[in-house]
Amino acid sequence: MPGGVGLSHLSAYEWEAADGVCGGSPHMHLVCTEAYVVTGGQGAVQTLSTEGYRDIALRAGAVVWFTPGTVHRMVQGGDLRVTVLMQNGGLPEAGDAVFTFPGEVLADPGRYAEAATLPAGTGAEVEAAARRRRDLAVEGYLVLREALVAGDVEPLREFQRAAAALVRERVPRWRELWRGGALAAAERTGAQLDALAGRDLAHLGEAAVYEAAPSRRGGYGMCGWRDEYALPAGGA
Predict the structure, then answer these.
(1) What pLDDT is recorded for position 215?
(2) CDD domains, per this entry (predicted)?
(3) Nearest to 112 by CA among 45, 46, 15, 27
């Protein structure tokens, strides 16, 4: 995608959680902004940040985005379908997302990895694992939300610290992906601006059109069933 942006399509989970809400697994990104473009149905996204708790309605045509550090939970209200645009395509797939599991799970990298990883393949076993993962994330999320609504931001900050500790060793790899993706795309634009200023139109003669179809349909994502695209990280 242009600019190194990641693309996927989501249909929000319809499974009911412990609080009676149907939807996905609450989680947080550490360096990527995420945008929802609602293409059908209705629902909501619940967010936790140091600004407080929000419950934002989602209907066809709505666009909502949230920056790193925002805990978000997609809520199914009826055939909700969303196109997701993700800053820094490739980084989320490389681990830039941490589930809101309870503190004792976050404190143990091995236990966290076991709870976060789904079995390979498809079928009932994978669905059951995805539901267990969602339920564990909701368990931790509800504690954070209750504290935030009561005016106590410290549990959220503690979650953010624990999440950062979990992913810190991945930062060098993320930096490589960023340099080859979003940064490379921005630098390419800078080079084109320089070329135009110098009356060099060579890049216009290299114009091209691309197309893609989902490389995987109906996978078990964090928020819902996910159609994925295998696209070059740096865009064209």
Answers:
(1) 86
(2) cupin_RmlC-like
(3) 27
Query: Residue type for 97, please?
Result: A
Indicate the average pLDDT of the chain. 94
Degrees to nearest 5, angle at CA 177 with 173 and 183: 135
Q: Which two tokens stand for residue 87?
A: 């800053």
Distance CA 41, CA 58 (A): 8
Pairs from 100-105 (Cβ < 8 Å, separation ≥ 24) = 100/26, 100/27, 100/28, 100/71, 100/137, 100/138, 100/140, 100/141, 100/144, 100/159, 101/136, 101/137, 101/139, 101/140, 102/136, 102/139, 102/140, 102/143, 103/140, 103/158, 103/159, 103/162, 105/136, 105/140
Q: How many Å separate Cα 113 from the centre of its chain?
A: 17
Average confidence (pLDDT) over 59-84 = 97
CA distance 24 to 110: 23
d(CA 158, CA 48): 13
Instruction: Give the per-residue pLDDT at 230.
Output: 80
- Arithmetic mean of pLDDT, 186-190: 95
Q: Which helix (H) or strand (E) holds 75?
A: strand 71-86
CA distance 165 to 150: 26
